[in-house]
Structure formats: structure tokens, C-alpha cells
UniProtKB/TrEMBL annotation:
Name used for this protein in its record: 3'(2'),5'-bisphosphate nucleotidase CysQ
Binding site for Mg(2+) 1: 69, 87, 89, 215
Binding site for substrate: 69, 89-92, 215
Organism: Fluviicoccus keumensis
Protein's gene: cysQ
The organism's place on the tree of life at top rank: Bacteria
Gene Ontology MF terms in the entry: 3'(2'),5'-bisphosphate nucleotidase activity; magnesium ion binding
């Protein structure tokens, strides 16, 4: 199966998972929330999407293992040079709070790099797809169009988390205003923030709070193919399945690549 065909098939898998999530989203009586060991929430929607995605990926690519947020066992993953990295429902807090900003994230990682990714926003009916060398795309029903980041607006458009904001983000906000005079602040939940930058609706997103590799892998290839970057605070692209931990370092998302040094300078001033 060539990469373009695989991308299209994975898009269908993500959309199927989205339908399973929406079926539960429309039935509040099924929203029982459990707390996982790391104190993050878990719902029936997470588990339904996880089971569907794992089954379909095994059908499509039986020799490629799946690393999912809801997998019970991650042992042995460091031996995998090629793997799927999946968050069946990114933004469970957004799901429970009914903000609509949650996504299905599926990425193919090869030798530490995300090379194919799909992000589906079930409530909005939008699917974002990207693969190395094939560009970044947004699909709304039967209509698919290529997307790309934009030059930084004046004032710049800054994305902040709705549920994970900290003093560090407030310090960055102050530093952005000091550098540019002003900025517009958009509050968006989950990995959907990366979609917004990739499609040119925002310029910059700093993240200091805890995230995992399945939160960013699909978004990273989407951003890179759209013309943007997802990098750590030293300006290095994130890499996957190469460390003992699956916790990401703090990172930033930049729409206009040429402005990366300026945004790193803003971070250092915060």
C-alpha cells in the first residue's frame, strides 16, 4: 500500500472512531468518568475509540505495532522502529466539559520521526491529513483542500490552553505583548490547537504543561507539511519512541518558520 492510499485509509479509521465518540457524546448517561493512575480522566468514549482504531490499524498494517494512550502494556516498544502512535480521544476534559474541542490523533512513526498523521475533530466534522512529501490537507465531508500556515499577523495570534494554563503561559503572554505591543489570544482545547496553526488561523502556541507523545505526533507532521514547526524550547523537532519516558518536553508551535528565532527569544524573555 502506498503512502497516499494509507493516509486515506487512516483518515477513514479516524472518522469511524469519531462517530463512535459522538454516539457516546450524545448520551450523557454513558459519560461515567474514571481516573487513571496519572489522574487523567477516562471515559467509555476513549475506550470505544481505542478498540476500533487498534482493530482497524491491525487490519490495514498487521505487521506494525500500535502504541495507544489506552494500551495496557507499553513494554517492548523501544524495539519498534516503525509504529502507530495513537490518542483515541485527545481532550477528554474537553469532551466531559462539552466544549467540542477534542480530536482523534493517529500517527505513523518511523525511526523516531512522525511521517504520516491524521487528526479528526468529530463535532466539527473536520479531518486533517498529512504525510511526508504529500502536503497537509483538510477534509470537510467530500471536500478536501490543501492547507498551510500563514505569515505572522500583526498583532500576532497566540493560542493558549483552556484547561491547562499556568503562570508560565501568562509570562509568555506578557513577553509577547512587550515584544509586539499587543496580541490576540485564542483559547482552544486539545491538539485541535495544532490544526488551527496548520490551517493559518493562529501564529504561536507555547506549551509548558505535561503532554505525551501521542498528544503531538500527528500534529507534528501536519504542522511540518503545512509549513510550520513543533519544536522543544531549544528549537529541536520532537522525536518519538526514543526515550524511556513517553512524556514530551515543553514545546512550542510556530506557524511561520522564519520567525522561530524570534519566538524562542520571546520564550527566553518570559
Amino acid at each position: 500500500m502506498n503512502r497516499e492510499t494509507l493516509l486515506n485509509e487512516v483518515g477513514k479509521v479516524a472518522e469511524s472512531a469519531g462517530r463512535a465518540i459522538l454516539a457516546i457524546y450524545g448520551e450523557p448517561e454513558r459519560w461515567a468518568v474514571q481516573q487513571k493512575v496519572d489522574d487523567s480522566p477516562l471515559t467509555a468514549a476513549d475506550l470505544a475509540a481505542h478498540r476500533l482504531i487498534v482493530e482497524e490499524l491491525h487490519r490495514l498494517t498487521p505487521t506494525i505495532p500500535v502504541l495507544s494512550e489506552e494500551s495496557e502494556d507499553h513494554s517492548g516498544r523501544r524495539d519498534w522502529s516503525r509504529l502507530w502512535v495513537v490518542d483515541p480521544l485527545d481532550g477528554t476534559r474537553e469532551f466531559v466539559a462539552r466544549t467540542n474541542d477534542f480530536t482523534v490523533n493517529i500517527a505513523l512513526v518511523e525511526n523516531g520521526e512522525a511521517i504520516l498523521g491524521v487528526m479528526h475533530a468529530p463535532v466539527y466534522g473536520m479531518t486533517y491529513l498529512a504525510a511526508r512529501g504529500l502536503g497537509a490537507w483538510r477534509q470537510d465531508g467530500q471536500r478536501r483542500e490543501r492547507i498551510g500556515t500563514t505569515v505572522t499577523m500583526s498583532p500576532p495570534r497566540l493560542l493558549l490552553s483552556r484547561h491547562h494554563r499556568s503562570g508560565a503561559e501568562d509570562a509568555v503572554l506578557a513577553a509577547v505583548k512587550a515584544r509586539f505591543g499587543d496580541c490576540s489570544v485564542l483559547q482552544v482545547g486539545s491538539a485541535f490547537k495544532m490544526c488551527r496553526v496548520a490551517e493559518g488561523a493562529a501564529d504561536f502556541y507555547p506549551r509548558f504543561g505535561k503532554t505525551m507523545e501521542w498528544d503531538t505526533a500527528a500534529g507534528q507532521i501536519l504542522l511540518e507539511e503545512a509549513g510550520g514547526l513543533l519544536v522543544d524550547h531549544d528549537g529541536r523537532p520532537l522525536r518519538y519512541n526514543e526515550r524511556d519516558t513517553l512524556v514530551n518536553p515543553p514545546f512550542l508551535v510556530v506557524g511561520e518558520r522564519a520567525r522561530l528565532p524570534e519566538w524562542l527569544s520571546v520564550l527566553s524573555a518570559a
